[in-house]
Amino acid sequence: MSRFRLYPTAAQQAALLEQCGHARYVWNLALEQWSMWTRDKGATPGYVEQARQLTGARAVSGWLRAGSQTVQQQALRDFDQAVRNFYVGTHQRPTWRKAGLHEGFRIVGSQASRIVKLNRKWAAVNVPKVGWVRFRLSRAVPAAKSYRVTRDRVGRWHLAFAVIPQPIPAPGTGEVVGVDRGVTVSAALSTGELLSCPGLSDREQHRLKQLQRRLSRCRRGSNRHRRVKAAIAKLHARAGDRRKDWVEKTSTDLARRFDVIRVEDLRIAQMTRRPKPKPDPDQPGAYLPNRRRAKAGLNRGILANGWGDLVKRLERKAKGRVEKVNPAYTSQTCSVCGHCAPENRENQAVFRCVACGHRANADVNAAVNIAAGRAVSARRETPVRVSLKREPQHATST
């Protein structure tokens, strides 16, 4: 998806927000109808019936009639496609859209009649019921049949064209790289490179902490509360932009340099879940410590390093060249002799094999194991199979 920055005027922003409200309202109505289905009732209305109901609603409601019928009907089409994707199993269940969080709508039509180039740096897009809105030409406009207008939490407007870019061709060198993702080091490569995802600076983190403390003292719904929330959202958006930029550059570089890219098969959604509360058996209604603060810090570190985004972009840019490896014991296995033991990991950064004395960076050693696809021997000839269930070692006579 190719995205551009929109720069609407104050009047155009109000009109765009109105269109977002119409699309969100129609989507939520369709979701409500679909969610009311039970086994003892008949089938819920499809797109054709919902479009007929929309025509009747526009005749009654002046608020809906003031908006674009094209935007509202497209919201129904998008919901119908979301339901189909859910039943197929490729996407998750459609959810409710909230004001301030899911602001946007989609337009389908001929691009030639809706995009006009103003000069070398600027162009304009024709939005129904809004008019011509300027956007920045940061790259060439792709030939797409639809575009989406969105607004993020900070208040920035974007124009995104639905187009799937071509995968990056393999270099043909036959090189394989392993990528070990971590919290301290965002991505360690089997070549020895250590990559870190940029985040907020120390000064920005200090300001974020001050704003969060100030927000806790604000009264909900007040103007001061909204201003502080906007300032916090701006800092989070800045960190998100830096993370996305790093993911795009890193994934492009790996797709251009290596033929095969091997990563750990991690379930990030399960890894970042909050810990379950532990009821105290001695005191009903009380709970035991479950280290939720430490787990929350670990979750923030995982999400801030873009583990999932990096693999998603690699799978799209290096299509068919990304392999997922079982992560079991990759950080405890020596990449030289194949000996696996918890004692090999001295600390978070240092790996020292107790069998052969091999010493290396712990993340790089794990990346070498990932690149091999499994733990390997010193000559890289005989694979050493590592089972998930650890068995006691018995001495054998030769």
Describe this structure in words.
The chain has 398 residues and is an alpha+beta fold. The chain has helices at residues 10-35, 47-60, 62-65, 69-88, 202-216, 223-257, 268-271, 292-304, 307-317, 362-372, and strands at residues 2-6, 103-108, 115-117, 122-127, 131-136, 146-151, 157-161, 176-181, 187-189, 194-195, 260-264, 278-279, 287-288, 322-325, 350-352, 359-361. It folds into two domains: 2-161, no CATH class; 176-325, no CATH class. A five-stranded mixed beta sheet has the order 10-9-8-11-14. α1 packs across α4 and α5 (202-216) packs antiparallel against α6. The longest helix has 35 residues, at 223-257.
Total of helices: 10
Mean pLDDT: 88
User: How many beta strands in the DSSP annotation?
Assistant: 16
Strand content: 15-25%
Query: How many strands, what sense, and barrel or not for the largest sheet?
Result: 5 strands, mixed
Beginning-to-end CA distance, first to last residue: 61 Å
Strand order across the largest sheet: 10-9-8-11-14
Structural class: alpha+beta
Q: Helical content, roughly?
A: 25-40%
What spatial form do the alpha-carbon principal axes imply?
globular
